[in-house]
Recover the amino acids of this structure.
């Protein structure tokens, strides 16, 4: 997949000081979001951090208390009728008429889009169902659907028309691991076709797996946004497991690394070898050179690994330990 | 099939504002809006609940006809609902009796259920947000929902009349109709009069439907909007029966509900029809404006 190149400043979603208050409570606090065209943008944050409220305001479902939103270069909600036909959305979980079949539900929602041609409605519905793997359940009433099937149907609804932007709020909620992988693959293939995908999630792993960009929300504020690489905590680390910790620290120091003994989060079992670790600087030595040096110095190397920079550390640093990062 | 493929204008990296406006299917198509109306009516009349309501309404004239037929005792004029005593002479009167019996409670009840459900029902299912991001357009959605409720009013009234005429035909002699003015009209014209009365009753319910639509924009609990609509229809009729509030009576939407007897005179007296239509039109405007004002600015959080 070659991501299309985009002119700087070409944004699919842009908010300026977007604020939404409910009474005394500020759900969204002056966020300036910039989602580049062609990106797969992860909108991360703990539950209740204002992600869904932001999405509702972006899509014109709720009015902003202050601030501006533009979608695909057009101001919202003023140009809503022009913009939204180009946007597919899954907002706060799927919602359907339980007494209609999956296909009938999609046809019903499709009629609400005035830009959707009735001539191709059936074909488009069938194709969308096929894309999310629901063809076999198309004629079943939605009341008989499992949560995961409803979630798939919700995604199918977002795909009824060719879209330039997809806004998917927690798209893998309720899906089994297989379904989660399928959604990721689907998002990637849509992105490969040039659709900008904006995915909200409280699952860090999900964002790391499919996004090119991300933003982190906490308590209504936008803490940080950028490409995934920009967001990762700066450094990768080398870790050595050895009973000769002191010797290992000396060897690593001789190689120019400031190594230290790790204090394990969970108390190690008695007699287990400790880990020694050191941040790798911008110009890291080849790992095999470090191992060779350790072994040459008589350090009994029982484990060796290079940890790449991780989003998780950055997230925890930004949002505090209370954030259910990878659950 | 190529038009169905998610095409990607995106790949050409054109700035959004430089892209030709008509490159994407974003413009409303002529006739595109009607699809939602058709869909609304289809969904409404495919729901089992709608059929249950209509069946309950149809049962009323049938019960009346069966009760009168099975009873050994001739209905006495002045006892029971109006027209009941005429049923044995002319089965067509089953339809009129059925309407008279249904108007105070059963018709407002079914209309309250449908009108109260319009927006609140979609909100409670969560489908309201998907209709609006489609985008259906808030005004158009209100219009479509109201038209759906109004069509249901017509269907409900026609159900009572049709069930009445059919059970009358089955159980009683049917012939030229003797009107309240003493004139007699042919059977064919009697059917027309029955339809005219169905139209009158439908118009009578339009104001209540708009009130229901307005209540429905206030809540995400459809039962609340339904109950409020139904309670209001009862309250209006209670107020209409209190002579102390006579000044208020012409303003109550239920005031002309039972005045369709004028349509059973020769020549047809349309005074009450006109007054009723004007009153209902007033309710349509006032509650339509309220529903619009409420729905246009409402945050959809369900």
């Amino acid at each position: 997949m070659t991501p299309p190149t985009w002119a700087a400043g070409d944004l699919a979603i842009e908010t300026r000081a977007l604020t939404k208050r409910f009474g005394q409570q500020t759900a969204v606090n002056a966020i300036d979001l910039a989602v580049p065209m062609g990106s797969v943008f992860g909108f991360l944050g703990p539950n209740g951090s204002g992600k869904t409220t932001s999405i509702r305001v972006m899509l014109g479902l709720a009015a902003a208390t202050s601030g501006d939103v533009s979608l695909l270069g057009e101001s919202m909600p003023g140009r809503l009728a022009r913009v939204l036909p180009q946007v597919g959305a899954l907002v706060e979980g799927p919602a359907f008429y339980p007494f209609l079949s999956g296909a009938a539900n999609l046809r019903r929602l499709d009629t609400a889009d005035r830009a959707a041609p009735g001539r191709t409605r059936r074909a488009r519905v069938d194709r969308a169902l096929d894309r999310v793997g629901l063809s076999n359940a198309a004629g079943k009433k939605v009341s008989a659907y499992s949560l995961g099937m409803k979630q798939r149907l919700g995604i199918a609804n977002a795909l009824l028309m060719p879209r330039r932007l997809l806004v998917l709020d927690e798209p893998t909620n309720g899906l089994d691991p297989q379904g989660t992988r399928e959604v990721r693959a689907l998002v990637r293939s849509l992105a490969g076709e040039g659709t900008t995908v904006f995915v909200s999630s409280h699952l860090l792993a999900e964002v790391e797996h499919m996004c090119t960009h991300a933003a982190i929300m906490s308590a209504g504020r936008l803490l940080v946004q950028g490409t995934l690489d920009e967001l990762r905590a700066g450094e990768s680390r080398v870790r050595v497991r050895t009973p000769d910790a002191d010797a290992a620290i000396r060897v690593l120091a001789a190689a120019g690394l400031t190594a230290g003994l790790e204090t394990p989060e969970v108390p190690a079992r008695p007699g287990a070898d400790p880990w020694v670790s050191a941040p790798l600087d911008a110009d890291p030595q080849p790992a095999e050179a470090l191992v060779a040096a350790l072994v040459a110095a008589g350090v009994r190397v029982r484990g060796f690994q290079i940890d790449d920079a991780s989003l998780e550390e950055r997230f925890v640093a930004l949002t505090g330990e209370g954030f259910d990062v990878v659950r | 099939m190529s038009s169905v493929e998610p095409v990607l204008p995106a790949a050409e990296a054109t700035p959004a504002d430089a892209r030709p406006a008509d490159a994407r299917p974003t413009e409303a198509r002529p006739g595109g809006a009607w699809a939602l109306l058709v869909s609304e009516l289809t969904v409404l009349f495919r729901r089992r609940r709608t059929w249950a309501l209509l069946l309950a309404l149809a049962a009323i004239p049938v019960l009346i006809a069966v009760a009168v037929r099975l009873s050994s005792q001739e209905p006495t004029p002045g006892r029971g609902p109006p027209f009941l005593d005429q049923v044995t002479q002319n089965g067509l009167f089953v339809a009129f009796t059925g309407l008279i019996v249904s108007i105070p409670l059963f018709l407002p009840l079914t209309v309250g259920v449908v009108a109260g459900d319009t927006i609140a029902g979609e909100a409670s299912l969560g489908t309201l947000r998907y209709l609006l991001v489609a985008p259906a357009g808030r005004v158009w959605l209100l219009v479509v929902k109201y038209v759906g409720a109004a069509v249901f009013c017509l269907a409900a009234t026609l159900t009572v009349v049709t069930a009445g005429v059919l059970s009358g035909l089955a159980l009683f002699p049917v012939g030229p109709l003797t009107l309240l003015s003493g004139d007699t009209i042919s059977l064919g014209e009697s059917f027309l009069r029955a339809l005219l009365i169905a139209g009158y009753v439908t118009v009578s319910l339009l104001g209540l439907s708009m009130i229901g639509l307005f209540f429905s924009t206030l809540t995400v609990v459809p039962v609340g909007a339904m109950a409020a609509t139904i309670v209001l229809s009862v309250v209006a009729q209670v107020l209409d029966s209190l002579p102390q509030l006579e000044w208020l009576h012409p303003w109550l939407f239920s005031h002309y509900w039972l005045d369709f007897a004028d349509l059973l005179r020769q020549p047809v007296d349309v005074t009450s029809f006109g007054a009723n239509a004007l009153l209902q039109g007033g309710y349509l405007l006032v509650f339509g404006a309220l529903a619009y004002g409420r729905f246009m600015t409402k945050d959809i959080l369900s």
The two ends of chain A are 29 Å apart (CA to CA). The first helix of chain A runs from residue 51 to 58. Chain A touches chain B through 62 residues (CB under 8 Å). Chain A has eleven helices and 15 strands.
